[in-house]
Structure formats: structure tokens, C-alpha cells
């Protein structure tokens, strides 16, 4: 076995590059198909699906996005600081003790039950100003929200409340499957049975990316899109719109060693070289969000070539078979997600190998990794 020059890195090795120009293209692509009477609510929760909340929201606002959807209050307050004019929907069940903060920052909480609404109204009543809110209706997701049968009564309860003004009505689909349209249709049918929803007197939104892609008839007054704007799930020709991934995840080779046949690699020697080859150790591991399930099955790109992950993914390092006489050396750039030369690996491919979804792969990338914004 012989070892080449070794790269020493001062910080965690992996970093993220986000292409803001591609984000702008994605936003334009979805806006182009959305009727002018429907707004786009850009879902930027979970640090903009791992892309970084503030740079993403700022770039989106620069190309005309007015509405943003977050899960928690701290995200909303951070957004308000950089986007004084944005409309910010806080979709988690915000604690009523924060009513004053929400009024002061002009945030729109989502009411998830009659009790939650009552607490918000009571707390808002002690403040100067009115709290504008949306009501979440559970029409079949079984998660947050007032049941569709109770929605009209809950709306009536708050009709004359001076402190809490319910301006919007929303729901969320459990299943949007073009081959089984009846599942989401059932949810829409339940919503349309709510007279206020049918009348259209409140601001109505139901669709997230998949429903937006496959059901133009459900755009209502807004769609809440997340993953499609980050470039996933809408990459085929012939769909309503097409978007492209905006995030690349990269690291560097730390060391390359030439190994003979039958050379054991990694914890428990779960891989042995079938022939003489070169093993590159790269600076990423499961602590960075590189899933351990990629052990002996994932790929990365080095010098424009796909190289297999061999051995177990460890906490901070991954070993890769780069092949004999690879020319790969310490310091070479490695693409974990993204494009290099003619090859690409995207988060949905990685997700497929890990029995998960691109959302989880993207949001698992260590938030501490440097994010570089391009374009
Ligand atoms: C309530 C709600 N609306 C919209 C979205 C956006 O979904 P997608 O990323 O599939 O567009 C989410 C995402 O988790 C959500 O929880």
C-alpha cells in the first residue's frame, strides 16, 4: 500500500453552493403558469429546506415573491428583519404568549384548533392592534388543523372578534398521486363543503408542490410551494412547469492510497478490494449529513467520474474507490450532490438509496457547513 500527499483541512471539509440564479429561474417558471389571481407562498421552513433561510428568502423577494411560509416564530422574526414588506405565514401552532410579538412584526399565525384561536384572540385582546391569522383545516391529512366539519363554526366564533381577524383558510393534502386523483379530490370536496371556502371570501390555499404541478384547478388564491422551487419533483418535460436543483454539496479528497487486491476498508472491513485499486478518503461523514446507509452503495463525483463509496461511512470520513491509476490526488474537489463534467448526482438519487425523500437528504446537510451563494 502506498499513500500520496495528504491534505489537512482546518474546518469541516464539506461545503454547500447554492445557485441563486437557478432559484430565480425556478420562481419565474412557476410564476409563469400560475394565474395572476393566485399568489405564490414560498415555503422556506427548516432553513429553506437546508439551503439557508435568509439568502434564499432575500433572493426570492428580489424576483417578486411576496409571501413566505415558515414553521416557527424565530424563522418568521428573522425574515421580518430583512424583508419589511413580506407577508409571513407561521404554519406551526404558535404559542399565544407571542401575540404581541406577532402583531408587532405583522406575522400571520395559522390557527390549528378552536382552543388555539381562543387563546390567540384573548392574548391579542391585551395588545394594541389586530392579529391577522389563517385557519388550518384538517380535510384528511390527520395532522394540524380544525376538522373540516367544524371549520364553519370556528370561523363564526371569531367573526366579530376585534383582536383576531381570520383572513385565510388553508388545508394540506395527504396524498397527491396522479394515478389516484380521488384521494386529494376528496379533501377538496370537503373544503368546498365549507360555505366560506366555496364562497371564496377568504384567502384560500391548499396546494403544495405536487398538487400545484398536477392540479391547476386547485390553485385557489395561492399555492404553497417548497420542494419544486428548490428544484425537485418537477424535472420532467411535459409537466406544468419545470425546475432545476439549486444546491450542490461538495468536499475534497484528503488522502489517496494505492491498495492491493483483497485490501480491507473501513469499520468491520465490510468491503475488500477485488483488484488493486486506489482508495480516496474524502472529508465528509454521517455527522455532516452523509447518510450511513450510503455505505457500500452511494456514489460521489471526482474528476467528472462516478466513484463508488466503499466500506462503511464513518462520522467524518468516507472512503471511495477511484480505480487504479486514477490520477486523483489530495485536494481534488468531490461532488456529493451536484454536477461535475457530464455527470450528476441529485438529492433524489441519494434519497432513493437511503429509502427516504429528497427533503430529508437536503435538510440533513449539517447547518454548520459553509454555504456559498452564487449567481
Ligand atoms: C403545510 C405545508 N404547506 C406546504 C408545504 C410545502 O410542500 P412542498 O415542499 O412539497 O411543496 C409543506 C411542506 O412540508 C407544508 O408542511
Summed up, what is this model?
The chain contains 12 helices and 21 strands.
Overview of the structural elements:
With 375 residues, the chain is α/β, with parallel strands linked by helices. The chain has two domains: 143 residues, Lyase, Ornithine Decarboxylase, Chain A, domain 1 (Beta Barrel), CATH 2.40.37.10; 206 residues, Alpha-Beta Barrel (TIM Barrel). Strands 3, 4, 5, 6, 7, 8, 9, 10 and 11 form a nine-stranded parallel sheet that branches. The longest helix is centred in the first third of the chain and has 14 residues. The protein is elongated and about 80 Å long. The protein binds pyridoxal-5'-phosphate (PLP). The site of pyridoxal-5'-phosphate has 10 residues, from strand 11.
Distance between the termini: 43 Å
Q: What structural class is derived from the secondary structure elements?
A: alpha/beta
CATH classification, class level of the largest domain: Alpha Beta
Task: Supply the number of structural domains.
Answer: 2
Spatial shape: elongated
What is the CATH architecture descriptor of the largest domain?
Alpha-Beta Barrel
User: What would you report as the Rg, rounded to the nearest angstrom?
Assistant: 24 Å
Mean pLDDT: 96
How big a fraction of the residues is strand?
25-35%
- CATH topology grouping of the largest domain: TIM Barrel
Helix content: 25-40%
Bound molecules: pyridoxal-5'-phosphate
Uncertain parts: none
The number of E-state strands comes to 21
CATH superfamily of the largest domain: Alanine racemase
Identify the quaternary structure here: single chain
How does the major sheet shape up?
Answer: 9 strands, parallel
The number of helices is: 12
Amino acid at each position: 500500500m502506498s499513500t500520496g500527499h495528504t491534505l489537512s483541512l482546518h474546518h469541516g471539509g464539506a461545503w454547500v453552493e447554492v445557485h441563486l440564479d437557478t432559484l430565480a429561474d425556478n420562481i419565474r417558471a412557476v410564476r409563469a403558469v400560475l394565474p395572476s389571481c393566485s399568489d405564490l407562498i414560498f415555503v422556506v421552513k427548516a432553513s429553506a429546506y437546508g439551503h439557508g433561510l435568509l439568502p434564499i428568502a432575500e433572493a426570492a423577494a428580489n424576483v417578486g415573491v411576496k409571501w413566505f411560509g415558515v414553521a416557527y416564530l424565530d424563522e418568521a422574526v428573522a425574515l421580518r428583519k430583512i424583508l419589511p414588506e413580506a407577508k409571513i405565514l407561521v404554519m406551526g401552532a404558535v404559542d399565544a404568549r407571542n401575540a404581541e410579538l406577532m402583531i408587532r412584526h405583522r406575522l400571520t399565525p395559522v390557527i390549528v384548533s378552536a382552543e388555539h384561536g381562543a387563546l390567540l384572540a384573548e392574548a391579542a385582546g391585551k395588545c394594541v392592534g389586530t392579529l391577522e391569522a389563517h385557519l388550518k383545516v384538517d380535510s384528511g391529512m390527520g395532522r394540524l388543523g380544525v376538522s373540516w366539519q367544524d371549520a364553519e363554526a370556528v370561523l363564526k366564533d371569531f367573526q366579530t372578534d376585534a383582536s383576531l381577524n381570520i383572513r385565510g383558510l388553508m388545508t394540506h393534502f395527504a396524498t397527491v398521486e396522479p394515478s389516484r386523483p380521488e384521494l386529494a379530490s376528496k379533501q377538496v370536496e370537503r373544503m368546498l363543503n365549507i360555505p366560506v371556502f366555496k364562497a371564496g371570501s377568504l384567502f384560500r390555499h391548499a396546494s403544495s408542490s405536487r398538487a400545484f404541478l398536477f392540479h391547476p384547478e386547485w390553485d385557489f388564491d395561492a399555492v404553497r410551494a417548497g420542494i419544486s422551487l428548490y428544484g425537485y419533483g418537477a424535472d420532467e418535460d411535459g409537466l406544468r412547469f419545470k425546475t432545476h436543483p439549486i444546491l450542490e454539496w461538495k468536499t475534497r479528497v484528503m488522502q489517496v492510497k494505492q491498495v492491493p487486491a483483497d485490501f480491507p476498508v473501513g469499520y468491520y472491513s465490510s468491503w475488500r478490494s477485488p483488484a488493486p485499486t486506489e482508495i480516496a478518503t474524502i472529508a465528509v461523514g454521517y455527522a455532516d449529513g452523509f447518510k450511513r446507509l450510503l455505505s457500500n452503495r452511494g456514489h460521489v463525483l471526482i474528476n467528472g467520474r462516478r466513484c463508488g463509496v466503499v466500506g462503511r461511512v464513518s462520522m467524518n470520513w468516507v472512503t471511495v474507490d477511484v480505480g487504479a491509476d486514477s490520477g486523483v490526488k489530495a485536494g481534488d474537489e468531490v461532488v456529493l450532490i451536484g454536477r461535475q463534467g457530464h455527470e450528476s448526482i441529485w438529492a433524489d438519487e441519494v434519497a432513493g438509496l437511503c429509502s427516504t425523500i429528497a427533503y430529508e437528504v437536503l435538510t440533513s446537510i449539517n447547518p454548520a457547513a459553509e454555504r456559498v451563494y452564487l449567481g
